[in-house]
Amino acid sequence: MAMQRVEHPDRVLYPMRRKGARGAGAWERLSWDHAYDYLAERLTRISDKYGPAANSWISMTGNYGIMALMLSQRIANSLGGTAFTNLGIMGDLGANMGFLPTLGVHQEAHDWSDLVGARLIMMFGKNIADTEHSDMHFLMEAMEQGAKLIVVDPRYSRTATKADQWISLRPGTDAALVLGMINVIVKEGLFDENFVRQHSNAPYLVRTDSGRLLRFNDLVEGGSDDYVIFDAVSATYLPASAAAEPKLRGVFEVFLKDGCAIECRPSFDLMVDAWQRFTPDHVESICDVPAELVRKLALAYATSHPASLWVGQGSQRYYHGHLAYRAVITLAALCGNIGKPHAGVSWGGGTLLRLILGTPDSWLAPAGARGTSYPGTRMHDIIATGDPYPIKSLWSHNYGFGTQNPRRKRFFEEILPKLDLFIVTEQLMTHAAKHADIVLPAVSYYEDDADIVGSWNNMYLQMRRAAIPPIGEAKTDWQIFKDLCERMGKADGWDMSAEQSCEFILRESPDPIFRNTDWEALKKNGVVRVPVKDPHVPFDDLKFPTPSGRVELYTEQLKDFGQEILVFEEPLESNRNPKSSQYPLTFMTAHQMHTVHSQHTRLPWIRELLPGPRLEMNPIDARLRDIADGDLVSVYNDRGSIKVYVTLTEAMKPGSLNLPQGWWPEDFPEGHYSDLTHVTLNPVQEAILETNFAPFDNLVEVIKSERAL
Ligand SMILES: Nc1nc2c(c(=O)[nH]1)N[C@H]1C(S)=C(S)[C@@H](COP(=O)(O)OP(=O)(O)OC[C@H]3O[C@@H](n4cnc5c(=O)[nH]c(N)nc54)[C@H](O)[C@@H]3O)O[C@H]1N2
Ligand SMILES: Nc1nc2c(c(=O)[nH]1)N[C@H]1C(S)=C(S)[C@@H](COP(=O)(O)OP(=O)(O)OC[C@H]3O[C@@H](n4cnc5c(=O)[nH]c(N)nc54)[C@H](O)[C@@H]3O)O[C@H]1N2
Ligand SMILES: [Mo]
Question: 3.40.718.10, 3.40.50.1820, 3.40.630.10, 3.40.50.740: which CATH number matches 11-81+352-529?
């Protein structure tokens, strides 16, 4: 089947320049030499007129190799241009923002093999059976060895079909469900008091006047700036690092060094009080999960040891997505389920995200040169407004731009006309390529001479090697940018082969697991495990790279946003907001088994299985709208409207819709699902990292367009 893609009739075979209007489909073939000359001249002209930052680059996960992913930053730095970052606009950054404030790391995961031995496995928004099927056998083995599987998903996903229990919650409400479990566990005294006292910041005293954590030097002139606990044995205030039996509950009158008395409470006391309102009944009203089930879930988790929690991407694709991950981490920490085999909270801890975050600066900015970088989530607005400066060219590579990006319609109607030059490096003549001014041919994986490929959830690295020569005149992104920099006289740091560049990325990485990876073995065998214990059990030393060195359940840094204590927030486009009277249905676009994003939906053999996009809808919602199975419907909101055929299925929770993602605009009678999406900046996420694109946080309405024949 791979060959159907490699030899696809839509394959881009040589550089092309648009003739006539954008999107008109008339092209002139260029030699590579001519293409480089033309690009060098155009980019220089833009740079001379508007400044070098007016040329911009963006890439996505298309090839999954680390170079292809990160080259947009390197080329922008070499030419003084603008790089738009990709993790936020990808929609994969929400989870990091739950992990960072609490555990001090962007992500962590137990090895999949470590699942075997767990008594209970709970998965939130993770559909491993479709999206990580190569590792699914570990889950099956764990279940054969006695683990119970609970899947939390509004949709009866393929993973849910394998579970002992499927919890179908209202989309975007995971944090409330988990808060309900936490509330029961605390009330029943089922939490791990010792872990909470010794390894979390729950015993630290908080000033109730400001919400800030008390510091020892607030009490004692010249004291350390350590946090403060109240020790039950000596009945004194001690620095948090002292050996003590800290109290978790109570209200204390504390005298500051200037003699003033203030009220303090252990953060645990404040948190537990704030969480009281998440009774099972209240949670039922939020999540649409029966109260009795919430209670049972809590008891099952707190009494099954060891218990392993997995979070996928589904829960983060909401405006407040980070809260779901923080909630799950809080639950695990309260039950002392962190740092232990077959337990923990796992999300994206494999080598891929580590490689992205650990790409050495010396590789990203060869010759020390630096351009400018802006979050990809701001790209549309920056280009539309020219604020903070004009952007006049955009070069998209390794990005299914036109299907995978938010707000396609806005891009093509409003943003593209602002650009003097739109360049797309692609394998196929995609929707974006069709609208480009210049299209450059990219190799497929099988023609790529060298790149390092990381994994989402395991600790292996692979070395990609060419299996066949390039089709047509295709080149790697590395080669294209290297040639262009040479042409433009900016070749500093580009005098490496692709293979040398791979070695450089590992050897110079700030992350010791890559610095210490056996490069020769990777080159020779094509695959290597990075040097971490096998199985990898995150935090087994119970040291956390947070300011306190502990799990930070109380997050002082988010005080100004009212999120110092874990809260639940309704999705931005909740189906309970006033807007839902007009647009009552939550519209999701989950990943699907038979295609990687937009890459396989057009292959003939895949088409036999998936002839085209189908909107999944519950029969209850359909009946209300007189919609029958197979009807053509319009899905719309105030951002756009699309037409698609509908499949009625009880796998969908009433009130929510799913349209598996990866279809091209050409596959829809009208519009494309990304026309319905939005990118709304979230100040809390901006304070932690950057806003995460929330592709499932969309309200829509559906009406029948044509009855099925
Ligand atoms: N609505 C909605 N949108 C989403 C998501 C969602 O769930 N719903 N998911 C988001 C997520 S998690 C992700 S990771 C992104 C994925 O978004 P993309 O990475 O954009 O997805 P792909 O379809 O894999 O697109 C990759 C494109 O890169 C091209 N390509 C492959 N290899 C190379 C190469 O070596 N060089 C060049 N120049 N091109 C190459 C392919 O031909 C393809 O057109 O989509 C995001 N967008
Ligand atoms: N075959 C295949 N595999 C892939 C990909 C692909 O395109 N195709 N893409 C890869 C990439 S880049 C990524 S990021 C991953 C993503 O893979 P996953 O982590 O599995 O993420 P999604 O498919 O986005 O969503 C997972 C599940 O979350 C559910 N969900 C939606 N809303 C909620 C909610 O509010 N709460 C809960 N608990 N669940 C919810 C959805 O119904 C869905 O079943 O897959 C990777 N693997
Ligand atoms: Mo992704």
Answer: 3.40.50.740
Backbone phi, psi, residue 17, to 5°: -120, 140
pLDDT attached to residue 107: 95
- Does the CB atom of residue 92 touch ligand 2 within 6 A? yes
C-alpha 404 – ligand 1 centre gap (Å) = 6
Q: Is the CB of 312 under 6 A from ligand 1?
A: no
**Whose alpha carbon is nearest atom 11 of ligand 1?**
90
pTM beyond 0.70: yes
CA of 635 relative to ligand 2 center, distance in Å? 21
Match domain 96-191+276-343 to its CATH number in 3.40.228.10, 3.40.190.10, 3.30.450.20, 3.30.1540.20.
3.40.228.10
Shortest-distance atom of ligand 1 to CA 398: 39
Give 309 Cα–ligand 2 centroid separation in angstroms. Answer: 16
CATH topology for 578-706 is Barwin-like endoglucanases (2.40.40)
Separation CA 242–CA 223 (nearest Å)? 13
The residue whose CA has the least distance to atom 39 of ligand 2 is 125
Which strands, in side-by-side order, build the sheet including 205-207?
205-207, 261-266, 252-255
Q: Tell me the domain boundaries of the chain.
A: 11-81+352-529, 96-191+276-343, 199-273, 578-706
Helix (H), strand (E) at residue 228: strand 228-231
pLDDT of residue 494: 96
Q: Which residues lie below 8 Å from residue 536, measured CB to CB, with a gap of 6+?
A: 109, 110, 111, 114, 349, 459
Under-70 pLDDT residues of the chain: 709
The predicted structure's pLDDT at residue 542: 98
What is the pLDDT at residue 709? 65
- pLDDT at position 631, please? 97
State if residue 157 touches ligand 2 by the CB under 6 angstroms criterion: yes
Find, among 358, 309, 348, 324, the residue nearest to 102 by Cα: 324
